[in-house]
Amino acid sequence: MENEFLVDSDKLSEAALKRKHEIENNKSVRIDHMKFLPNMDQLESDIQDKVLENLKDIDWDSYTDADVYRALAAKTPSIEDFKALLSPAAKKHIEKMAARAKIETAKHFGNTVYLFTPLYIANYCDNYCVYCGFNCYNDIKRKKMSFEEIRHEMEVISKSGIEEILILTGESPVYSDVKYIGEACKLARKYFKNVGLEIYPVNVNDYKYLHECGADYVTVFQETYNPDKYETLHLLGNKRIFPYRFQAQERAILGGMRGVAFSALLGLTNFREDALASALHLYFLARKYPHVEYSLSCPRLRPIVNNDKINPLDVHETELCQILCAYRIFLPYVGITVSSREEKHFRDGIAKICATKISAGVSTGIGDHEEKYEAYKEEEEMESKASDFDKKESIKALQQEAVSENEECGDEQFDISDRRSFDQMYDDMAGEGLQPVLNDYIYV
Amino acid sequence: MNKEDKLVLGGREFNSRFILGSGKYNLELIKAAVENAGAEIITLAVRRANTKDSENIMDYVPENVTLLPNTSGARDASEAVRIAHLSRELGGGDFVKVEIMKDSKYLLPDNNETIKATEILAKEGFVVLPYMYPDLYAARELENVGAAAVMPLASPIGSNRGLATKDFIQILIDEIDLPIIVDAGIGKPSEACAAMEMGASAIMCNTAIATAKDIPMMATAFKNAIEAGRSAYLAGLGRVLTRGSESMDPLTGFLRD
User: Fold this and answer.
1) Do B247 and A287 touch (CB under 8 A)?
2) A95–B250: do the CB atoms touch at under 8 Å?
3) What is the pLDDT of residue A404?
4) CATH top-level class for A14-34+45-368+406-437?
């Protein structure tokens, strides 16, 4: 089964539509995705070769129960052990994997769970990535927040109690340039103790600048580590250049960032391969730059505006749980972030096994935290009273209201599945026996 | 043993993973190391060499054995570098084992000076094998400055006290992309075997064999132990069952699909 990603908009001119179809259907008009563009930093680094080398000729079905047992018993699991834990053979040992993962998590993180919130400040995008709601051909409401709007959103969010913010943009160096993002970081430092970035990959000097502006953690998703598949999904824009994106974390480290985060978007292609590659990307960088903090995310494909059929295919909750346990066992010291793409029951469960960081009070739209926060509050009040059926109906109505009320907002990147407010999340995590942490790093 | 499983140092391949140290030399020991333990590398303390014409150690070392001159007796990096130069001039080849000790009681290596000497000698084209205290940062530095392997000690040299630094050697094996050769302190074949099972690339020892009642027999015992440990490592150790039952309340009960 494959996702049907390509959707045409009736708002596009005939010429634009023609161009879009040509790009989609004719590989020869697309640029070489493995070649750096002239303005891009190119590092002398062997990490990409090392990762891709490890993806060659894997027979996932060759792993046996014995391999899984060996991996679970290994003091320091090898790459081969890690593959066994990602293999189909390990699926039925999920409970044992969870038990080992829980021990490792407790050893390195105690019972803490870190809470943060993402803030999308702009959704303009120059790329055409066929699965993404922000892609340049998707007919959505675009918005770039003014500094006053950003400040206001930050104020609203910080009042909720959140101390770490993750600033996100669509990938448009034109609409949201480095200077603009830098100013947003400076504002964020006034309201938050920690500032992370999830923006388009930039050069070392730009990372250095953004670090000076207050950001110190950089997240970049490679989406898929299979270069051939990557080519078919990222048709236009800087993001098309696979190795430039691959080297983003290393450039961020060279720019002075404290930590970097990685992930593939699970469901785009063979998820075992992409999970393996994400972890190895981190693993090899950690060997080269052992002073840096590292973390992994685990997003699965989600429906987007104008295409509600996109789904994570064969990455079910059990597979996702298996991947995360394997990450934890192979890389016991890294942070694992689980986003609001996942539902409440999953996030609650996984936080007790291996997740160390979860988002709360999330909106992936632009400039709508205030209404959403109000809506969340009403939702939660309603939840405590109403029956299940009533709840669903009225929550839907509330959400539609929140969106339609404000025509000024930009559309969301993807549908979220866990709308809990910060307060609710804090209480839920504490209720699960976990210790919510809002900040664990003070800038000095 | 698998024919392809070679120890590679400075681009040169070796079949044997036993290296004879240089502390307690005599003809019988060298003969046993080569014939019974299969040693292909023998260290030689350049500074300690007999300066008289008679009893030249070189007369005892077979031609097919690689000499690994060491800088034993060096107190700092510059002395180690001078000894290495001397060794190369004397036809000792490009291999050098850097040993720098400032403590004559325990003979523990000075990691700081060792890093300095390794950097200089690696730049000059030597295949540098530094003897060191198993410290992760020092090992990383040695890797960065061009060492061909890292040689952490198991316990004080000549002590036969075994794998006192086992956990720290394991960290080096896990984290450093160079052969890890356990050097000094190994007192029994079982300890050599344990180190090889952990993933060490080779074992260097001397005293354990030199002080045995039957030197050739002990040399054979070491050969077998090292090969057994290496095979076990390559075969992948099986699981260890631990006591205790699984949680009654499953951790993964929340999964829906």
Assistant:
1) no
2) yes
3) 46
4) alpha beta
